[in-house]
Specification:
With about 150 residues, the chain is of the alpha+beta class. It is built from 4 helices and 6 strands; from the N terminus they run ααααββββββ.
């Protein structure tokens, strides 16, 4: 049973990676402008109105819940009493791609909302979550020293 679950998880991750590789190249981005124009947006707003926010600068804080590869992550952005919920799919771009994020890191990031991304869970359920291209990221890690990238 474990082998089947790992195989299905592998297929999901490969699908996300292939989607990212085949996407169009990003135009030149001015990171200072992204940061200056970024607005804090709730998960509910991003999920409910993806078309409204697509192309907009956003500033979010959350916890890395899954490291897909060196530049792709699921980051939960709603802090609850007992942890973080509401994952968004984040792909690091530009200087942020040099960040060495780990699962459980608390991060704040600035980027461009890219609508939604869909994938299949291990059990085959289709899951759709907001997608963000992050160009700047700070690792906060619960008041430990900050790493700015």
């Amino acid at each position: 049973m474990k082998k089947l679950l790992f195989a299905l998880l592998f297929i999901v991750i490969v699908g996300i990676v292939i989607n990212a590789i085949t996407s169009e190249p990003e135009p030149d981005i001015d990171i200072e402008t992204i940061v200056a124009l970024a607005e804090v947006v709730s998960y509910d707003e991003l999920a409910r109105y993806p078309d409204r926010y697509e192309g907009s600068s956003v500033h979010l804080t959350g916890q890395v819940v899954q490291k897909i590869n060196a530049i792709q992550f699921r980051i939960s952005i709603t802090q609850e009493t007992f942890g973080w919920t509401d994952p968004v799919y984040v792909e690091l771009k530009g200087p942020a791609a040099d960040a060495r994020l780990l699962e459980q890191d608390i991060v704040e990031f600035w980027g461009i909302a890219k609508g939604e991304v869909a994938y299949r869970s291990v059990l085959g359920q289709k899951i759709t979550i907001p997608q963000i291209y992050a160009y700047k990221v700070n690792v906060l890690n619960n008041n430990e020293h900050e790493r700015n990238l």
